[in-house]
Amino acid sequence: MTTLADFYAKHSRLIDQIGVNALLALSLSVSLQAGQLALAQAAFAGIAAYVSAILAMNAHWPLLATIVVAMLVASAVAAVLAYPVRRLRGVFLAIATIGFGEIVRVFANNLKITGGAEGLSGIPNDATTPVIYGSLAVVAIALFFLSRTKFALAVALVREDEYAARGVGIDVGAIRTLSLALGGAIAGLAGALYAHASFFLTPGDFGFARMEQILVWCVVGGVTSPLGAVLGAALLSILPEAIRFLADYREISNGIILLAVILFAPGGLASLWRRGVVRVRS
Amino acid sequence: MLTLENIGVRYGGVDALRDVSLSVEPNRVLGLIGPNGAGKTTLINATTGLAPLASGTIALDGKRIDGLPPHRIARAGIARTYQNIRLFGALDVRANLAAGAFPRPGRPTTAELTALLARAGIVHVDLTAQANSLAYGDQRRLEIGRALAAAPAVIMLDEPAAGMNPSETTRLVDTIRAIAAAGIAVLLIEHDMTLVRAACDSVVVLSFGEVIARGTPSEVARDPIVVEAYLGTGAEALA
Amino acid sequence: MIAQQLLNGLFLGAVYALFAVGYTLVFGVLDILNLAHAAIFTAAAFAAFSLALAGWPLPLAFLAGAVLAGLIGILLDRVAFAPLRARNAGTLVPLISSIGVAIIIGAILRGIYGVDEKHFTTGGLDTAPAIHLGPVTFTTVELAIFFSAIALMLGLSYVLRSTTLGRRIRAVAEDRVAAALLGVDLERTIAATFFIASGLGGAAGVLTGLEYNSVTLDMGGPIELKGLAVIILGGMGSVTGAVVGGFILGAVETLAIAYGLSPWRDAIVFGVMFVLLVARPTGLFGKRALRQA
Q: Is the dihedral angle over the CA atoms C166, C169, C175, C178 positive or is it negative?
C-alpha cells in the first residue's frame, strides 16, 4: 500500500496530465469520427481553461460551476465555428481551423482579462486526481452509450460517404456541427481541468504544438476509436517520461511510434488490438 | 405518386433537361431510357435535390419537394440507387441497411433486416459482412435493400443490372416487380431492353434532355423517332 | 517612415516567400501539406550555424545548410510519403506522417544542441556600417539576405519554366498518371521536387538565423503557420502566388507594427487567411478548385 502511495506521490502530476490528455484526445476523436480534420480542439480547450480560471479567480465560483460554464462556452464556440467552415474539407478545413486556433492564441496574448502573455497564476488547485478521472469516466460512459444511438450511425455514415449519407436522409451539416460541438464540450472539460490542476495558465499552453500532440495521440491510438484515442494519449504521455535516460533525445520515440503506426498499422493501436483478438479467437 | 412537371436543369449554360414531365405511380414500374448523355441520371439527381431545377416543379403526393435539401427529400419518401455503387463500403451489411432505415423512427430489428435481404434477393448474405467485400451483383442488390429499408413511396433505380450476367438480370426482374407489387412507385433507368420489356409497365424515352416518346415498352421500341435517336449509339440496344 | 517600414516589409517578405515557395511546391505537385517543412528550415539553420562556428565562410555554410535540407527532404519523402503514395493513402495521412518526421527532426536537434538559443556568427557582416539611402536605412546583412532570397526564387522560376526537370515537375503536378504514361520517372521527379522544395525551405532557415543573429529550436514555429497563410493567400500550389503572398505578408506585418497594431498582427494575418479560405478558397493566383464536394 505504501509503495502505491509512494508511486502516486512521485508521479501524481503525470497521472493527472494523462487524464487531461485522454480527454483532449477524445475531443478530437469525436470530430474525426465524422470525418472532419478540424484542428481547433486545443483552442476550444484553451478558451474553456481561461473561462473557468477567470470565473474561479475573479468571481470565486465553485469548481463544478466553472467547469459547466466553460464546457458550454467551448461547445458554443465550436458550433459557431462549424458554420463558416461548413463547405471546407480535408486539408483546407485543417488549415482554416488552425488559423482559428492562432487567432484565439493572439487574443489570449493581448487581452487584459486573460493576463496577456504572462497568463494567469494562482488558479485554485482543486482539480484533484479523482476529479479528473471521475470526469474521464463520465465522458467515457457517455460516449459508450452515445455509440449505440442513431447519432453514432449517422456520424459513421457521414465519415464514409457524405454524398450517400445525404441520400439516405441524413442532414450532413447538422451532424458535422453536432460532432464539432460535442468535441468542443469535451475539449472544454479538459481545458477547465487543466487550468485547475496546474495553477498557471499561459497562451502557449493550447497553441498549435498542443494541437499537433492531440492529433498524434489520436492517430497512434486509432482515429475512429475513442478507446484508441485514450490509449494513444496515455502511451505517448508516459513514454517520454519512461525513457528519460535519452535526455533531450527522448521525444524521438513519439515521432517514431507515429510513423510506425501510419506505415505498418494504419488503423492505430486499436486495430492491432482488434486484429489480435480476432487471431486469438480463430 | 411522384409528379415532375415541365422540369428543366441547366449545367453551365447547356440544357441537361428541358421541359420534362412524367409521373411515377404506386404499384407501377416506369422505365426511363435513352442514349448516353440523354439526361437520365440528371433526372434522378434533380428529383433527389442534388441538381438544382432551372424550371418546373416536382411533387410527391401533391406536396412540392423541389428546392428542399437532399436529406429532406430522402426523408419525404424517395429512395435511390446509384449508377456507380455508393455503399458505405467500410461498414457492414447491417449498418448499410440501418442507414437506409435512418429516416424511420427507432432502429430495425435483425428480423426486419433479414426480411430486407430477402426482398433484395440476397438472403445468402451475412449481416456482419463488410459491404465492399461482397460480390459485385450482391453489392448492387444491397443498395436496393438499403433503398427498401427506408420504406419509401418511390424508388429510383439507376441501371441496377449494369455488370450483371443474363441469369442475374432475369432474377432482377422478379425483384423489381415484387417491389412495385408492395405498393412502391418504381423508376427504372436501364439500357438492357430485355429487362425494360420484362419489368416496366410504361416507358419514357429521353434524348438530349427532352422526352421524345412515351408508351408501353413495345410501342416505344417500334417508334421510328426512338430508333432514330438510338442510331449511332447502337440500335441493337432496342432489339 | 512608411518608406522604411515598406523596405523592412520587403526584407521580411523575401524570407517568407522563400519558405512558402517550397511549402507550396510540394502541395502543388503532390497535394500534400508537408508539416515537416518548418523542421527542415530549422535543421538547416542549425547546420549552417555549426559550420560557420567551425570557421566555414558564410556563403559556403549557407549553401551547405540548404543542400543538407534538400537531402533531408528526399529522405522525408522516402520515409514518410513514398510508402503512403504506393498504397494511395490520400492527402490527410501524409500530413500526419510529416508531423512524425518533424517530431524526430526536432528531437535530434534538441539532443545535439540543447534548448538554449545559439548566436549566429555572421563573420563580421553584422559589424559593417549601416547603409543610408535617401529616407531609408538598412544593414549589409539585410541586403545579403534579400538578394540571396530573390536569386534563389529566380533560379527556381528558371528551373520550373525552362529546364527538362521543370517540365517534368509541372507535368507531374498537372496529372501524375498522364505524366507517368508519357515516360516521366515519377519517383525521381518527386525526389527532385523534395530536394528543391526543402532546399529552399532550408535556405530560408539559414537566412532567418542570419536576420535575427540567432538560431533556436522553436524558430520554425511562427513561420510554419504564417507560411500556411501565405500559400492560402497566393493559392495553394501556385509558386508565383506564394512569392506575392510572402511579400504581402511581410508588408502587412511591418505596417501593423508602424500603426501600433503589433500585438494583433498575427490575428490580422490569420483572420485574413480564414476569411479567404471561406470566401475565396482558390486564393489570388490558384486555379485549382480547393473545395472538394
A: positive
